[in-house]
Every structure is written in C-alpha cells, then in structure tokens.
Amino acid sequence: MNSDFPPSSGSVQWHLGPIIDALRTSRESTHNIRHQGRVRELPSRDVLTQVVNGVSAALFPTHYGRPDLNDESIDYFVGDTLNVTLDRLVEQVRRALRFSPQLEEDDEALLANRARAITHEFAASLPALRALLVSDVQAALAGDPAASSVAEIMLCYPGTIAILYHRLAHCLHRLGVPFLARLVADIGHSLTGIDIHPAATIGGSFFIDHGTGVVIGETAILGERVRLYQAVTLGAKRFPVDANGALVKGAPRHPIVEDDVVIYAGATILGRITVGAGSTIGGNVWLTQSVPPGSNVSQAQSRNT
Amino acid sequence: MNSDFPPSSGSVQWHLGPIIDALRTSRESTHNIRHQGRVRELPSRDVLTQVVNGVSAALFPTHYGRPDLNDESIDYFVGDTLNVTLDRLVEQVRRALRFSPQLEEDDEALLANRARAITHEFAASLPALRALLVSDVQAALAGDPAASSVAEIMLCYPGTIAILYHRLAHCLHRLGVPFLARLVADIGHSLTGIDIHPAATIGGSFFIDHGTGVVIGETAILGERVRLYQAVTLGAKRFPVDANGALVKGAPRHPIVEDDVVIYAGATILGRITVGAGSTIGGNVWLTQSVPPGSNVSQAQSRNT
Amino acid sequence: MNSDFPPSSGSVQWHLGPIIDALRTSRESTHNIRHQGRVRELPSRDVLTQVVNGVSAALFPTHYGRPDLNDESIDYFVGDTLNVTLDRLVEQVRRALRFSPQLEEDDEALLANRARAITHEFAASLPALRALLVSDVQAALAGDPAASSVAEIMLCYPGTIAILYHRLAHCLHRLGVPFLARLVADIGHSLTGIDIHPAATIGGSFFIDHGTGVVIGETAILGERVRLYQAVTLGAKRFPVDANGALVKGAPRHPIVEDDVVIYAGATILGRITVGAGSTIGGNVWLTQSVPPGSNVSQAQSRNT
Amino acid sequence: MNSDFPPSSGSVQWHLGPIIDALRTSRESTHNIRHQGRVRELPSRDVLTQVVNGVSAALFPTHYGRPDLNDESIDYFVGDTLNVTLDRLVEQVRRALRFSPQLEEDDEALLANRARAITHEFAASLPALRALLVSDVQAALAGDPAASSVAEIMLCYPGTIAILYHRLAHCLHRLGVPFLARLVADIGHSLTGIDIHPAATIGGSFFIDHGTGVVIGETAILGERVRLYQAVTLGAKRFPVDANGALVKGAPRHPIVEDDVVIYAGATILGRITVGAGSTIGGNVWLTQSVPPGSNVSQAQSRNT
Amino acid sequence: MNSDFPPSSGSVQWHLGPIIDALRTSRESTHNIRHQGRVRELPSRDVLTQVVNGVSAALFPTHYGRPDLNDESIDYFVGDTLNVTLDRLVEQVRRALRFSPQLEEDDEALLANRARAITHEFAASLPALRALLVSDVQAALAGDPAASSVAEIMLCYPGTIAILYHRLAHCLHRLGVPFLARLVADIGHSLTGIDIHPAATIGGSFFIDHGTGVVIGETAILGERVRLYQAVTLGAKRFPVDANGALVKGAPRHPIVEDDVVIYAGATILGRITVGAGSTIGGNVWLTQSVPPGSNVSQAQSRNT
Amino acid sequence: MNSDFPPSSGSVQWHLGPIIDALRTSRESTHNIRHQGRVRELPSRDVLTQVVNGVSAALFPTHYGRPDLNDESIDYFVGDTLNVTLDRLVEQVRRALRFSPQLEEDDEALLANRARAITHEFAASLPALRALLVSDVQAALAGDPAASSVAEIMLCYPGTIAILYHRLAHCLHRLGVPFLARLVADIGHSLTGIDIHPAATIGGSFFIDHGTGVVIGETAILGERVRLYQAVTLGAKRFPVDANGALVKGAPRHPIVEDDVVIYAGATILGRITVGAGSTIGGNVWLTQSVPPGSNVSQAQSRNT
Hints:
Chains A, B, C, D, E, F: Keywords: Acyltransferase, Amino-acid biosynthesis, Transferase. Six copies of one chain form a homohexamer. Chain A is of the alpha/beta class and 305 residues long.
C-alpha cells in the first residue's frame, strides 16, 4: 500500500489558528454581552424546559407526573417536585433579571431578593393557574367532536401544550421577567407550531384545535371561551414609528377578541380592532376592521376554472 | 459582610403548605382519572416514540436501524428489534384499552388477552404496511424535482416521517386502540407540523411536500397517488349538533379526495365533499363544494396597488 | 387463581418467523441501498445535530456555548469545539459523498481526500458566515418592536435558528454535499416549522418573524435586508417537464426577491418572477407575476355577512 | 487502490449460524431457569442499586440525598423518595420470592401479597435501622484518629458504605428474601472490597477501618462496639458434611465476637469459636480456638535475616 | 456591597498559558505514543466493557441478557447481540494489534485482516467457553454451603464474574491480542478485587469464594476442580534477570496447581513449584517448595499472650 | 376473576406518615450538619470524579483524553479541559473549606478567595505532578516483567490509577483541603482496592503491583523508587491517647520507608519505624521495629503436616 493511503480522518490538522483569530475579531467588533465589565450568564433553555415539566407535573401529577401515585403519595410528590422546580426557577429568574433595563444589575443581593420574591409569587399563583388550565381542557372536550376523554386532550392535543406553556409564560411576564417568559413561549412554539406572545392576555376556557401556524401577538386581548383553529393570525397591521423613524415598542397594535368568538383556520385578523362577542370569523378571512358582537364573517369562494 | 447577604438560593423556604393544599382541593374538585376506585396508568409518550422507532427500524433496517447490517446479520436485528418493540407495545395497548368505553376494564385477564391479540395483528400487518410506505417513498421520488435519492427522501423529508407515523397510527386505530393511535399521531405532528387524524383513510403512493400546516381530518378519505403541499386543510365545514345541541362525534364531515388529485399549498377544502379523480386544486383555494373528476380549481389574483 | 391467568406480557411468543420472511422479501424486491455490492453508510441525523450545535457554539460561544467563558478561556473552547466538530463533520461528508452521482465511490482514498478538502473549506468560511449571521440578528433587533435584546433574539426567535441552520446548510450545499445540506435543513425545519431549501440564495440582514409555515424553494434568490412573516411561500408555480414527461430537476422555478422587500404573513409568491427592490407584499397575497421595485401589493378584503 | 482494500469492519459477516446453534444446545443441556414451564424474571442489580441509593437518601437526606434541602422541603423529599424506592423494592421482592423454595410460586396473588407485606415491614424498620447506622458513624468518629468530621466519615469511608449495605441486606434477609439480601451484599462488596454475608448478625457501633479484604461469614455473630481492620476474616474452619458427603448448608460455623473486641488487620478467625468481650486480636493472627474475655492475642515476629 | 464582592466562580481566569506550555514540554520530552509518525488509537475501556457485557448476554441470555426472552425470541437476541458485539470487538482488536511488536503496523489492510480472523476465532470458541463457565458455576454450587441456586451464583458471586472475565481475557490472549486481554482482566479485577493474569491457564470447574485479594500470576497453571478462597496469592518468588540485569519477561515463575486442590484464605504460594493433586493448603500458609499429591499444609498457631 | 386480584404494585399505599416522623425525630436528635444556622453543601463525589478525569485527560491527553488528538488540536483540548475542570474544582474546594475548622465560614467572600487561590496553586503544580507520574510509569515498566508497553501500564494497572489518585489527593491535602483530598483518595480506593491516605508522602518512581489490599497510613513517608506488592500494610501500631484517653489525631505513627525498598505481598509494617534504604521485606512479614539499610527480612516457612 503506498504512501497516499489516507490516515484515519480523526488525525486531520484543521489549521484553525487563523479561523479562531478571525472569529475572535468578529466577536469583539460586533456584539458583546459583557455589561459593565462582566459577562451576564444567560438563562438556560434546558433548565426552563425542566421547570415547565416540573410545574406541569405538580399541577397535573397523574397526567404529567409519575404513574402510580395514590392518595397518600401524591402530596409528597407534589411538594418535592415543587421544591426542586422552584429552586431551579429562582436561579433562572435571577439570570433573566440581569437583562432587565430597570435594574442596577451589579447589586447581587438586590437581584437575589427580587428573584426570590418573584418565584414566591409564581408559586402562589399556581392554584389559580391550574383552575384556568382545567377550564381550557373542559373547553377542548366540549369543542372537538373527535375528542373522547380528558386524558386524550391532555396527552395528544398540541393546543393543550401550547396553552400550558402560554399560561406559565404569561405569569412570568406579568411578574416582571419578560425574557424568561419569551423563552418559555418559544419552547412551546417549537413543540407545537403555535406562537403566542407571552404578553398576550387570554381568558379562560380557551381552545386551539390543530394549531400549527397560529400566531397571537404581544398586545392581543382574548376574552372567555374563545376558540381558534390552525393558522389563525391575530397580528399587527403596521408598526408605529416615532419621530426618528424608529419602531415604537409595546404600543397596542393587535386585536381584541371578545368572549365566545370562534375563528376558523387561516383567518388573519390584524391591527388593534375589536371582534365583538359571539362572532364567528370564517376560514381564510382577512380582517382589518372591527366587527360588532354576533358578526359572521366569511370570504368569497374560489372559482372552478 | 452584613447579615443581609443572601443565602444560596437553594435553601429558600417556599412555604408550600397552602399551595399544596389548594392544588389538592383543585384536583379533587375538578377532574379525576380514577375509575371504579382505581387509577388507570396512562400510555407513555416516550415509550410510544421508542415503539415507532423500533417498528421503523424493523421495516427499514438500513435507513432507520443500525449502520453496517449485512445479509447475515439483518434478520437477527429485525427479529430482536421486533421482539423488544412488541413487548413494549403490548403494555401500551393494555393501558390504552383501559380507557376504552366498551371494556369492563377491571377484568385484567381479558384486557391482557385483548392487548396481546391486537399486538399480534399489528405485527402481522407490518409487511403490508411496508409495501404501502415503499409506494409513498416512490411517489416522493417521482413527485419532487428537488429529490435526488431514496435515502434523501427517507432521511430529509418531513412528509415521509408524517406518513410513517400516520400509517402506524391508522393501523392502531383500525385495531381498536384509538387513544394510542392519537398519541402516535400527535408525536408525528410535533415532529413535522403535519397533523393527520389517525382515523383518516389514505391510499398508497401518498406524497406531502414541505408539509408544515397540513391538516387532514378524522373522516377524510384519500385515494391513491394523492399529492399535497404545505398548509393544505382537509377539514370539517361545520360540526353536526344533536337535538340537545351537543356535538355529534364521528359523523362523516371531511372531504373525500379521489385518486391522482394534486392540492397545492394553502388550499382549504371543507366538508364531506368529493374532489373528483385527477383534479388539481390551486394554492390558497377555498373549496366547500364537490368538484367533478378532472377539475382544475384556482383562486383569483391579488391586485397591485 | 386458575390456569388462565395471563403470564407477564413480556413472555409472549410473537411468531415472528413469517413476518421476518415477508419483510426480507419486501426489502429485496423493492429498494436496495447496496451500490456495487456494498452498503453505503448513511449520514447520521444525530451526529449532524451535534455538528450544528458545535459550530453554533464556536461561532457564538456565549450564547450557544458554555456559560462562564472569559477572555482567557474562550479561545481554548472555540479551538477544542471546532476540532471535535470538524472531526465529526468530515466523517459525515465522506458518507454523503458516497451518494454523490459524480463520484467513483469505491475509491476510498479519493473520497476521504474530498471529504477533508470540503471540511477545510467549510471551516475557512466560518468567519464570513458569522458576519452574515450577525447581520441577521441586527436585522431582527431593528425589525421587531417586541424584541428587547440581542440575547432574546438569539435564544427565543425561531427565525434566528432557522437562518442559522440555513446558512450552514447552504454552505455545505455550495461545497458539494447536497445530501448533507438537505439533512441539516430538515433538522432546522423540524425545530422551527420554517422550511428553507439549502440551495436557496439569501443575502445578509435577513429576518423571519414567527416563521411557522414559511417555505423557500430550491432556486429562490433573496437580496439584502429581506423581511418575511409566518406562512410566506416562495414556491414554484409549475414543474418543467422534459420530452418524456419526467420532471426536470434543478431548473430555476422560484422567485427572485430583491433588496429591502417585506413580505407579510401568508403571502404566496410562485414561479421565477421578480419582486422588485423595496416592494411590500401584503398578507395572504397570491402573486405569480413580477412586480417592479417599490410595489405595494395587497389582497381584497373579506366581506362581513 | 486494489481490490484487497478492506471494507469497513462493520460489514463483516460473522457466520454465526453454527455458533448460535451450539449455544442453544449448550443452554438446553446444561441449566435451565424455567420453573414449571415458566421463566422466572431475575431481580435487577441496577434497580437494587437505585433502591439502596433511595433508602440512603431517605435516611440521610443531607449526606446521601439532595443538596439544599431545608426544614420545609426535607419531609417532602423523604416521602417522595421513599414512595419511589418502595415501589421499586416491592417488585424486586416479588421476583426474588419466586426463587424461594418454600413458595408455591405460580400463585401470583399470594406472591404479590407477600412482597407487599415484606416491603411494608422493611419500611417500618427504617427508623431503627437509622439509629443503628448513626451509632456506627459515631463509632468511626471515636475510633479513627484520622477522621475529622461526620461528613468525612459518611462520604469517604468504605467501612461506612459497607455497613450501610450490610444493614439493609441483613434486614431483607431477616424478612425472608435471602436472594435479594445476597445481591445487595454483593453490590456493597464490589464497591468496598468488604464482604459481609447478609445473614451475619452485627451489633451497633460497628466500625471497619480501611476494610479491603474483610470477610464476615454467614453465621458470624458480632456484639456491640466491635472494631475491625482491613483483611480480617471471620470464617469457617471446615464445612460440615452429611452422611452422603454433601455439604450441610446453614450450620453455625463462623465465630462469635463479643462486645468491645478489636481485631487488627489480617487476622484470621475461623470456626464457631468465641472471642470474649473486650479482647484484642493482633494483626495477622491465626485463631481457631475460643479465647476468654479480655484476651490479647498477637503473633510471633518475623526474623531479620 | 463593596467592590470586593466575589464574581461567580466560573468567570475566574486561570492563567493557563504557562501551565499548558509546561505540560506540552513535559509530554514531548518524556513519552510519546506516536509510532513511525502516527498516533496509534488506544483500545477503549468502555467499549471493552460493552464487549464483555455483550458476550455475557449472548452466552447466558437469561441471567446476563434481557428479561422476558422466550424460546422464540432468544436466538434473535443472541444473534443480534453477537453481531453488535463482534463488530465492536474487531475494532478493538485492530487497535490493540497496532501495539503488537511483531506487526508491521502501517500495513492497514493486513492489520484489518488479522483483526477479523482473530475475532472470527473468538466467536467460534464461544460454545466451548460457555461449557467451561457452566462447569465453574456447578463447582460453586457444589462448593459453597451458603449458595442456594444457580441464579444466586451467577448474580451475587464476585468469583463468577472474575472467572468470566478471565476466561474471555485468556481467550483473547491465546488468540494473539495480549494488550486487549490485559485490559479485560483489569476491568474484572476492578469489579471484584480478584486479579488473574490473562495468560494464566485454568482448568474447568474452578471456584473462588469471596475472592478479594486473590492474585494469580502470568505463568500459573491450574488443573481441574481447583478451589481458592480470598487473598490467595499464586505468585513469583523472584524475577529472573538476564546478563545485563534486565528482567526476563515471560519465563515460567508461578506455581502449577494440579487437579482437585483447595487453597484456603490468605495462603501465599510462590515460584514455579507444583502443588500435587488433591492437596489442601491451609489459610495464611507461606509455601515456596513443591508438595506431593495429597499433601495437607497448614501454618502454626498464634499464641495467646 | 375475584376481588382478591392484586392491583398493580405501584399503587400500594405505604403509610409513610409515622415512618417519616420517626426519621425526622432521629435526624433532629442525632446529628446535624447545620452550622451557625445554615446547611453546608457537601462536596460531590460525582463532580470530583469528573475533576480527576479532567485532570488526567489534561495531563495525559492521548491516554486518558480523547482519541485522535494531534499536534495542532492537543493544546486547545488541554486548555479547554483545564478550564472546565478548574471551574468545577474551585466550587468543590469552596464547599470543602466550609468544613475547615480554621475558617470563619460565614465569610463567603473570604471563602471564595481562598478557594480560588488554592485552585490556582493546584493548577500551577500540574507540570511537576505530571513529571512525578511519568517517573511512576517508568518504574512500573522497569519493575514488572509482565508489562510490555507504557500504554498497557497506563490503561491496565490498578497501581497506576491508585498513584494518580493519590498524587492529586496529596496535592489537595497539602494545599489545605483535607476533606476533598480524602474524598479523592476514597474514590481511588474504591476503583483499585488500594488505600492510600492523602497525607502520606511518597517519592517518585513509585510502583505498586497488583495492589489489592495495600494500605498506606496518614503519616507514612516513602522515599524514591519504592516498590510494593498486594496487601502490604504500612500502618499504625497503636494510637497515642491523650490524658483524657481520647485519640491524639495527626501524630506520626506510620513507617518511614527509605529509597529503593521493595516490600513483597502481605507484609505488615507497623509504627513509626524506619525501613532502611535498599531493604527487601519478604512476603507476609510482620515488622514493628526499624531495620537498617540493606536489610533482607523474611518470615518462617509453614510446615507440611
């Protein structure tokens, strides 16, 4: 065998020196997450996933927790799961707060106190959060003719998962950790194809069927018993721009959907308009103006050529 | 350092007592998966994922199994993989049957026998299932100008994965374990963004390109050689309601798509209508009435303002 | 307890003999990945995921790498991560090249040399790739009123992930390993619901918001500073067919989108048409003809019935 | 490159047919764990290791459990850990009972009841077991001049681990699952080099220093406050043989060591003899006859040549 | 809080530059595993552990394999396990052969052929190896009054594990891969405290009780039905030195132990002497001269002072 | 099937309330690791194992690190591995220091500074430590006629592993973290059966063959080129007791072994005696008095009865 025989691929010398130099130069010139001379540790997507799983297990131990729990063992499980989960969450909250513009972030003690206070409030809101989620599951059972049991809705419906992630994310958003809320929301989006901004306000008994492609924007407000199908967009029509042409952040720009509205697949509802209570918005409808309560909006038929 | 120094976050006392009590109260008042005094163990999403992976590996050992199999070793691999997989499946079937309304579920022996019989039938249908899947892969190779090899179609096309999950889910549905079928379907949905109800009937040589947002409803019937693009909906127009206003479950309400139909991206086809053989439905078309064989349906152009 | 008591399910005999025989027959009759008498080992989805994670960590160590890196430790991390990652990549490139029609694949030495050369070029293009990705992140920060920090965009935006996967996939495609490129693209698609063909050419400062359902076809060309919303399709109108009726692969058939174009949610743009620089395409627009620079295309309103 | 180039090793055909046949023949002719036509599932070493870890964590949550437990969280942790651990243990007990000669093992219901009763008793004896282990740790702290804290003794002394495994194994032995007890003892042996038969009876405040090579036989009886060093054997002198020359199992044949005895490294004490209270047995001593209380036994010096 | 507050420990700069330089200098000056300009990949302890586990599972599927195998599934399991295991082994053999002084190791093709041939022979000897191991287990059952079942001996006796590792290691040694043999032997030693050189020749029906501290040297030869207890040494008395004072490697220097010999705990037998058939060597005996068949050697008693 | 049918074991109610109460009572009455009102987090055995593996990989990248490193990649690997490892170590040092009696442990800032300083010193001593370990490996190669290569000695000799653990443990002991040192030593003991107190002082070119049962005490001092065999004890004869009868900790009580001494298997050397340079101590010798340089000590023969 001659000398051309290839050595095993692992021993290749990749001549990385100039590449590493160029990457360092690129890092230093373009963006820099050091703040006042210190690297800020980022929240961890993996740990947040564990947090959501832990909270889910504590809220619904039989469906999302451990099999074979019984009346005696269940509270030990809930208590231990919550302790582990809140210990994890408080550290993530602390990291996220460092990115909060309002905080003097090098005051570590203050930061730690804030993180603990927020996590406490999060824990305290869990029973109410559970009640909301139960209303959502009941809405799904009532709203989908294909659903046959609560277990099926909790295990097999992406809408259930998306709403669970949203309600947790919204709680974190409300408590003052928007970065963490956004990360939780994105994990839910990745799992389900349903994209709900954590700042969106959504009433009880909410149901999303199929769900892929649903988008609900930052300032959207949904009432009670709203039902959505796949690919519904509750979006912004245009973005307000300030005197300098820069985007104005946070301004109300997404729809208000009142109680008992049903929006069918592919409908697009844009701008700070109001869909009146009890309305039905048909599939693929494109709507940019408010409609009164009880409206029934549908789109024109395609033609057969 | 003064006494305000924060202890390490882990030692926070979360005062969980009242929260745990409230969660218990919420659990007890709202829903309860005990049945005749006994908790019913739920099927496991993780184990079902292993089951699908095991079946895939047994059906297509070179693509979804282990590298370096050869003519001698391949049957040992297939045999051992099937044994492990069927042992796992039979336990999941048993759990799912407990949720079946028709069964006196506390007859454990009957349940175990049913689970074994169903799993046996599932195993026996694998060769036919493989033939169907081969026809699907061939359809993809023929139908996508960007596809260059069978390997690429099997490894890189979400449509392939979605159809694989559907064919397994449909088989489980047909054999009488709809809950399990639904769970398998939802795993496939989460992986691909393609949502096919396990009860939908789909002929051979089926191809879905891109696929995100496709929805195929419970009572849809698709013929041979159907081709779909992303965001196609084969849905229900409205839900039949009984005399009491309750949804009627299981009634035919989704389209029948005959052989050799192509449906382009974003088309929405609703209701128990028939799309005649050989028809082409254009992108974004909204269709709620039957069209005869050979139809060519498209939508109006947008206008340039 | 009588003799009918079911043995533990694990000891079921599944009578696999005929099933295994039928599967073997099916394998042998239908498709065969042996080439010139030899099985070709397939690229591994898991390893490619590790490769993308490794490259991401080397490009953006603070966001996608390891917490607590500092000025001293960061280059060791980048260097070691790249070495591991390139060693993994070169083996995947070698496997993928075996599926390349142009290569005499049983010339193992040639194949290994090609794989090493390609991986070297891939490594050399990383600094330029990083610059492109930085431009994309800046575009997101500028373009989304809901975005509050670079960290949020890098951790919480599916668009960021989709573009990262695309830029790596496109680089592999350009270097001559289209199969690997396709696999990387599909992993990105599965994570984000955004489907970009690796051959598509996309300029800097690219931003996709929400993103679920976006499809960008094989021969699409996008200029600088293009912005897309969810469910936008840049697709083919029809597939060119050759004299024998077979699909012509690789022909230009997807849109050209010039610099500074914004395309809103659900717009469908089909065929080798050109969207002129600075144009805005409204939500749900269906466009199959070129529009000049500065166009503003929107669709008709739905009617309220 | 010529045709002699070796294919990748993975594709070797190993011609396993005759080997597999020969192994089957060997299995069938030599030993057979089927009992009355049924395979008996064996206890699992891995699960038993988890059980021991779980019990250890419940007994000593701060040292062997989870960091950062506090007064509020600790009982949830203990309760949840015990529930999980006992659920695992009861299944292992059930498997082990099948190997018990006294049981009609095909009475599954009886077996399950026995397993539950034994596991209940095991749980009930945990507080007493903890008290014994605390006495052992105190003895170590008092007995080793190199020991500086309880934490050091619990984390760094193989003797502590060996005694922990023994006390759990002995409890299982006493409750009627000798097979499980033996398996627990062997795991402890493998971790520490200290080999204590689970049937051996050992009083409180027991300390083994260094420990490698210690052997304590099945019928040995040790009093309170015994201290052993490495390589001490408390063994059998000879094995009683019955009229047919077969070994008589279970007969008393190992030493009785009374309270407050110290036995230095390498001493070998054989047969059913008694080492009187308060005796000291020197290093390397070979002892096969009883010694009265307060004895001081040492061996002759080596000579310098 | 003042500026002395410690940053989180992770951001410490360790000033590794000079340390890394010094380590490189040390590496380059002292020893170098490159051979003819190439690094030789070392065998992997982890993979060898998998190989031993795989072989054990194939030899004794019920005890060391998977629970719930039955007459139908067992051969698939054995076949698949062997294929995976031999594929792993052949790569380890190839690596080890590179360290063999007799081979021109840069002839990769020759090396690969040798590795395959050796692995084939290893596979072919498995049935005979199983027969030997069965004889060992029977000897344990017969020889230990505390043993109550074959299952107990296979799962709970370190001697069983040590002999299993030895018989596999010896087979590899005999087939010409002494380095691999040594590594397998050392894994067994670490698990059991029993140290048997892989070159030692040991007849059937071999039993080691307790075993910690047993050492059997490279050139030892043991007959049939030998029984050893813990801490027995079959060692070398002195090492032959050549004319230059260098150790002569491989010369016979350990004992020959004939059939049916029993050697009790702590006995030390040194040098190329012969222990005649049927002899009994007492505990702690120090023996450096041959003894005729039927001897009964014991040591003097210690004295009670 | 009647109502006696056992429910699945998992749903057993274990009635843990009184057991948990009793365990709490036991915890509170017996020992308490809270110190000044705060729980002190314990060092982690698992993390320390990672630290030792990391240091080993940095010291000997080819043998204990990653395969396929080359001249270019090796320093990146060493640098990154050290950074990760030292980040882990500094946290363990900090935890261990809390158990140090000399420190006011609630001064967190001081503690963190000490931990960093110690870890820095540890890092700085690595090159010297490597030189020592290289001398040990060379001694093994020279001293064992069965050894055939450096790779064999580094991968297959428990003595090599034991010395590696000792040299790291001794370094930590010297730097003022005896608790951590003890934990590292115990991990090494568990892996090898060789028990070396981390405070023992051992010169270069140290070799232990076989090694099971070796014990080297806290105040032992060994010179250069010492060679030990299995089961050698360098122990204390008696423990000094103070006026109150309490053990005096730390007093010199173990042997001094001068340069070039060989001690054969099973020898026991006790007390603060000196074994003169160049001496040979025979197997099983029991020695409690100093011997001059060049001594040759052996024990009497056993008798053949």
